[in-house]
Design brief:
By secondary structure, the chain is mainly alpha-helical. Helix content is 59%, strand content 0%. Among the domains are: 67 residues; 30 residues. The longest helix has 58 residues. This is RSRC1 protein. InterPro entries: SRRP53.
Length: 167
């Protein structure tokens, strides 16, 4: 109400009246802005709901057509094949690991001076014999395991220094 605003501002100086009016204008603008944003949000939500409804409608139509195709006389049943089995058959089984001799002393671990490639460190357990409890490469000397870990850590740090993201 402009009458109430004028009555409330009469006792103020003109500068204070201007400041109070400016404050009221800013508050009104903020409320109008919030109302516009709320309207935009509701429109966006309505649009998203409409798109989702259309997507579900497309999925429903697709499902109905698939059901009709199955119920038709021309449908030929096929045996189910798991995608897991397909992955197993396409994996290359020729992953090779260095044979490790159980009971080898520390002299074996310090004898080779060349750096082992970090890629040669096994990252997954591959069972070759179904009767064994664990892979033979899991049984290595503590010093050798620490050395391999240290080499792998250094390789990862070097990759990181070169800018490669390390996962």
């Amino acid at each position: 109400d402009s009458g109430n605003i004028k009555a409330g501002l009469e006792h103020l100086t003109p500068a204070e009246q201007a400041k109070a009016r400016l404050q009221l204008v800013l508050e009104a603008a903020a409320k109008a802005d919030e109302a516009l944003k709320a309207k935009e949000r509701s429109e966006e939500e309505a649009k998203k709901r409409k798109e989702e409804d259309q997507a579900t409608l497309v999925e429903q139509v697709k499902r109905v057509k698939e059901i009709e195709a199955i119920e038709s006389d021309s449908f030929v049943p096929q045996t189910f094949r798991s995608s897991k089995e397909v992955k197993k058959s396409t994996e290359p089984p020729d992953l090779q690991y260095e044979p490790v001799i159980v009971g080898a002393g520390a002299a074996d671990a310090s004898a080779p001076e060349k750096d082992p490639a970090p890629a040669s460190i096994p990252t997954a357990i591959k069972y070759q014999d179904d009767n064994s409890l664990a892979h033979p490469n899991l049984f290595i000397e503590k010093a050798e395991a620490e050395e391999k870990w240290f080499q792998r850590l250094m390789a990862l740090r070097q990759e990181r220094l070169m800018g490669s993201p390390v996962a």
